[in-house]
Amino acid sequence: MEASIRDVARRAGVSAATVSRILNGTAAVSEKKTQAVREAVEFYSYEPNQFARGLKKQSSRMIGVYFPTAGTSMFEGSYNLEMLKGIEKSLRYRDYSMVLISETEEYWRRKKKTPKYLEYIRQKRIDGLLMSGLVNQARDDPAFRQIVEEYPVVYIGKRVHKDGLNVYAQFEQYNVQLLRILYEQGHRKILFFISEMHRNHQEAIERQVREELPELELYSVSFQGFADAGRELLSLIEKYVVAQGCTAVCARVIYEAQILLAACAQLQIKVPEQVSVISVEHSRNEGAVLYPRVSAMYVPAQAMGAGAAELLLDYIEGKEIAENSIEYEPEYIERDSIRRI
Amino acid sequence: MEASIRDVARRAGVSAATVSRILNGTAAVSEKKTQAVREAVEFYSYEPNQFARGLKKQSSRMIGVYFPTAGTSMFEGSYNLEMLKGIEKSLRYRDYSMVLISETEEYWRRKKKTPKYLEYIRQKRIDGLLMSGLVNQARDDPAFRQIVEEYPVVYIGKRVHKDGLNVYAQFEQYNVQLLRILYEQGHRKILFFISEMHRNHQEAIERQVREELPELELYSVSFQGFADAGRELLSLIEKYVVAQGCTAVCARVIYEAQILLAACAQLQIKVPEQVSVISVEHSRNEGAVLYPRVSAMYVPAQAMGAGAAELLLDYIEGKEIAENSIEYEPEYIERDSIRRI
DNA sequence: CTGTTAGCGCCTTCAT
DNA sequence: ATGAAGGCGCTAACAG
Fold it and tell me: What nucleotides of chain D have any atom within 7 angstroms of a protein Cβ?
């Protein structure tokens, strides 16, 4: 058993209350006793038991991070990773810690059980929650709606509940922007990758494209495979670039662009001479380490993570919140992978 | 205020103890009361307060993860990421959660303060600790030695304390193995990247090479730059491959091999025709998405993370531990990036 | 099988 | 400025 506050008090010849006051700076205490207590704390390497403290204060200074992932891990893809970095930074700065919450498969199978994130917050293990990347299925989950309404939660991504705290970038807009850039360079047949997760945005993007870029033939392809990505991409390129005659490809993330480039190299298709490649990047300069350097829309995922954490902590600590929902602006970075035709 | 066990007890018309017994399955309770309690739990969406429970049980079912990083984030590099995935998996399976501990810079500047990982364990926030990637400086930290001796800790990497729990792969051996493979393919001048962190292994590797592969000229280069890696690598290739005539390059991680390949492409150096490339990979098939597919030594980082977590939990839960230190075997995977000369 | 009781370690009145 | 006392919510020992 570690030393308790009473041990410290006894050794310093004071009461437990005095020790508490000194440790928390709650009230003035004489210099003499302060010294004695410091010595005793040092002696025992005393650290206040957080269960007891939490029981009293009803706060753990821990923040939960919940990034549900269908099949793959939350430590995958630079979008997630950059967000995690940003979150970690903000939390560390404000002296909170980060608890990773990963749902058991069991929950998704039989929806009866309480989801873990809710459990954690009800159990007071965490003071607040950062969420991202919910699939549509989850957004309709009553447990989810409840938590957003009743507890301190920031959702990163398209806002789910009209009052909820939220941080986002305009997915549809920057994707259309990417297509517009290619269009202005003369491209009229574009292969556009979109993930299952963003299916719900697809229609809006396509509509906007039809209105604004009338001559554009857009081939939206939903392409899952993280697993055997190389082979899959190879056949997609053969189908859309070689056979259909697409002159440009729009990738969703740099990792995808990388595999795309490898596939092109294998097929002896030169980038950008024969096909242009454009991508989204979530980490600064991610596109610059490829060859050729890939032009990309930079989405500041790390800043979004950090901002979400700040917002949550401000809310928890009762600070004034200027905006419930904060938008982050992507920035286009021109490099060497696209050309005018 | 959330409902407490007494609220549930009152509504079910039983005592708090009975509720506790039902929730924990600690003792037999009549079917009737069980039903009533279940209803009340449902009614309040009751979840036991973890502060109170922890205070009683002195356990939080949380495990700390501490990957100190000089400058860069713990969410960087597939070695870390794969370990995190493995850890996450094991912990989830056994119903523990994962707390990320990141040291404040402050600690490393002025070594006075207690490091956070020690603080957390003394405060009982976590039941145990998983550590990895300590720089040499940290290994000599008295706070560190103390924790390894006194608390439930598993270190992932070369063992630090003779009695500590530990999980590792033989860094020196598999690196020499990589060089041996190139040697057997006729390579006699090899550019070998080694990180600052592994400086202490360098000598051992070089000694073994001198003994075993006498004709080999090894150019060990310590190359930090994650930042402007591309440019840096370009000049290293020009220096060692073009000028010195190295016929093979050994990369430390796939990310590095990727940049290497991009640099070679830029310099019009064909791989493997003009230079062979070999690497270490920490995620299965990581090397296969590059072009050409890179031959690599697969180090099972994910399994190591999972194994470390298992070991720690077994220890915490008082299970018999067969081996204090577990070795993981890397596996060489031949692909297309090296050739006989 | 069930209820009563007594802490776990801390913080916060209240009284001095 | 300081100490005594009570209670945060839960569980385990004891008594019935």
Answer: 1-5, 7-13
Shortest CA distance from A230: residue in chain B: B289
Residues sharing a CB contact under 8 Å with residue A233, sequence separation 6 or more, in sequence order: A223, A256, A259, A260, A263
Looking at beta carbons, which residues of chain B come within 8 Å of A290? Answer: 258, 262
Residue A220 and residue A209 share a domain: yes
Q: Are residue A15 and residue A96 in the same domain, yes or no?
A: no
Q: Residue A55 is nearest to which of B48, B51, B265, comparing CB atoms?
A: B51
- How many domains does chain A contain in total? 3
Mark whether A181 and A286 lie in a shared domain: yes
Residue A338 lies in a domain: no
User: pTM to 2 decimals?
Assistant: 0.94
Residues of chain A with pLDDT under 50: none
Top residue of A53, A84, A101, A125 to mutate, by most chain B CBs within 10 Å, is A125
Q: What is the pLDDT of residues B62-76, one digit of tens each?
A: 999 999 887 789 999
Task: Decide if A19 is inside a domain.
Answer: yes
For the stretch A223-259, pLDDT in tens is: 776 667 778 899 999 999 999 999 999 999 999 999 9
The string of DSSP codes covering A186-230 is T--EEEEEE-GGGHHHHHHHHHHHHHHSTT-EEEEEE---STTHH
CA of residue A51 to C1' of nucleotide D15, angstroms: 30
Hey, what amino acid is at B327? E
